[in-house]
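Running this now, will post back.
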Amino acid sequence: MDIRRLFRCMGRGTWMLIGVGATLLYLTAADFVISIKPAVSFEDMLDGKEVKVGSRVAGEVVFAMDYFASESTYTRYEDGSRSGSRKSGNYYLIPTAEGYIALKSRQADVSALDALSEETFEYMNNGPEPSTVIHMQGKVERMEGTLAGYYEEYLEELGYSEAEIDAFGEPLVIRYLNFIAVQSMFAAALLILFLDIFFLQRRYRRAGEDRGFKRAEDLPDPRSY
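Update: finished.
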């Protein structure tokens, strides 16, 4: 392969497509791997199925305790100012067979999870089984920093001792993730890179074929005959 010819065939558009495709691939590769793993449901976790960092969780939320933290987002402008904060979801406590796991919801799911939380506490006090149906999916991540502190504080409010909280194991959180969107973006990244390589290969081959023809200025002057 002629490296110099290859680089001559790579215009600005080629580099831009490579950059876009590579960036999308980098951003979605890890989540794509998670998206094709077998999903663990919330019922599975109640039955003793273990999850760990990188697990995929999907299904109907069976029980939910109250939220122990909320999250807001804002936009930082070039002049240093920022927009007003906008809520982007809450962190709920979800019971499992071994203890608890956190669930980071979207803001759109807050109302349903709040209702499920109330129904869960009523059920724990000999009330009817929860009737609110909400489907959630996401990936399991490690819970760290201030968020982990809020998690432990809430467990203490529920009456658990420090030793009991430690026995629950490493604090984990299920963070909502749209796996269909992840798979679509990953496929788009592969398609962009494939098409870029395909057209680059064609330009490279044509450039090689053109080298076999003499340029007009290299041809003999017909007046010399």
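The radius of gyration is 28 Å. More later if anyone needs it.
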